[in-house]
Amino acid sequence: MTSQQRPERSPEYPLECDHCHYPIPSEPEETDDGQFCSTACLEASEDDEDEMPDPSAYKRIVTGVEPLDSLIPNGVPADSFVCLSGTAGTRRSELLTELVWRAIERGEPAVLVTATTPPAAVLERFFENGWNVLPALEDDRLRLVDCFTHRLADRDAFRDHRGEWIEFVGEAAADSIVPIEEPTDVEPILRECNAALDDLEMTETGLVAIDSLSELGRGLETDHVHEFVTETRATVCKARYVPIFGGWTAGDEGVAMDESIFDGVVDLRLADHLEPDTRLRQLGVRKLTGARYLPQWITYEYEPVRGLVASVVESAGQATPGGPPSREMQGVRERR
Question: Where does the record place the region Disordered (predicted)?
Fold first, then answer.
C-alpha cells in the first residue's frame, strides 16, 4: 500500500506498523516499502524476507466450547495458563477433552497430559462423545504424556486384562504415547512435555490440556507442582503462545496450590441451591489476565457430540448464554 492509499490517522483508525502490525502511536518511520512504528521494526523488515504474522491470528484463541466462549467474547489470550477449578460432577474432564477435540477439529495439534487414567481410557472419552481421534493419532496431531501407568502396582496385570477394543486403541496410539517412568519427579515430565511440543511443531498453534493438576500434584512434592506450573507457563505459554488448560479439584486439601500463579481461573460448580430438586452445573470466569470476560455464571449441560452447551435457566438471577464470540474475533485460531 502506498502513502497515497493509506487512510488518514485518526483515533478510530490509527496507522498500523507494516512489520509488527500494532498501532503506531507517534510519527511513523516511512520508506518505499511501508510505514513502521520504530527503527527496530524498520530494520527487521529489511532483514527478514518473511512478513511478521498478524498477532491477532495467533495471540487469541476461540476455544470452540460454547459456554466458555460465551463468557470470553474476544477470545482467550494464547499465552495463558488457565486453571479449570471444579468439584466432582462438574464435567471438568469432559471440558478438557472437548478443548483438545476442538483444537484437533480446527486442524491444530494438541498435547494431553494424563495423571488420572491410562491413555487408552482417555482416548475412550473422545469415542464416547462421537469424536474419532484415530486420524489425529495417525497424522501425529495428538500426543499423550502418560503420568499414570507407571504408578500402577501391577502394570502387567492391567495390560493382560484389557478388552479387545481397548487393546486396539492402545496399539493404534502406541507411537503417540509418551510414558513417564518417574511421575514423582517433575524434571522428566517437563522434559517430555517440551519434547512433544517440539515434535508437533507447536508454536503459535494448538494447546495443552492437563488432567489433572491435582492428581499430578499427589505424586510430587508441593513445591514441585508449583515449579511445574511456573516452568510450563514460561516455556510453553509465554515463549510459544500455546495455551495450557489444567484441571484442578476445588477444595482439595491434599495438594496446596497458589492460584495467583495462573493467568486465568475458571470455576465450575454444582448450584443445586438455586433450583429446588435440580442440580445445575455452572461455569464462571474468576480471572483472566489480558482478556475481557463477562462477570456472570453460565448454566451448562453436557451432550455427546455437541459437548458442553449453554442452557437458559428462567429462574430469577440466572445467567443466560452470552452468545457467540464478537465479530472481530471470528476466525481467530478458529479454522473449522
Answer: 316-336
